[in-house]
Amino acid sequence: MTILITICARGGSKGVPGKNIKEINGIPLIVYSINAAKKFAKKFNSTIALSTDDSEILKVCEQNGISTDYVRPTNLAGDEVGKIAVIEHLLKYQEEKDKVKYDYILDLDVTSPLRTIEDLKSAYSEISNNPEALNIISVSECRKNPYFNLVELNADGFASLSKKLTSNIYSRQKAPSVFEVNGSFYFYKRAFFNRGNTIALEENKTLVYKMNHECFDVDTKEDFLYMQYLIENKKLSFSIT
Question: In the chain, how many domains are there?
């Protein structure tokens, strides 16, 4: 099987300026994903591809053994652009360059590096052993449950539960399990990109890989500070490098 590992990192973050190369414990954030990609590639003989529009990000990647001739087009560099379009454009570029059709694509999100090589291996095993599935996404147990304690406002401004059950549920513990997408990694079969998908979910075709440890993405300054605290003070129960 041929596997392409994609690392996509644009410049111009608004929530945390320069977050993709901002250091945690002396290591630029993107390097945690580079290290994970190298470990996985060594075990599964994969190709690593980079998509960025930022010269400083490219410089950090080159210093850590990842270089590329690919430059993300301007129309795919804005914060309103979906990730699927970015990955697909890089995939087609890499396939043409390498003269190969990749069987699987593993996308590692730079802003959600709290993953292990065992997570990646287990998720890859799940997707490769399920002929019906097109992709698998990493998730975490949701801290809030839409059947119990998430609400939406109707047109009149009154609140109701986001999801309704046919029977009454009086405790969160008895509500159906739900998960939040933590964005850490996604495995796709090549066929996923032939179906016109614009998001990483396709009904009855997407599996979830539940992480049993802390994992979240850096979207705000508070997220970054919390991740920095966990890593620099060795509060994680696993190693990410």
Answer: 2
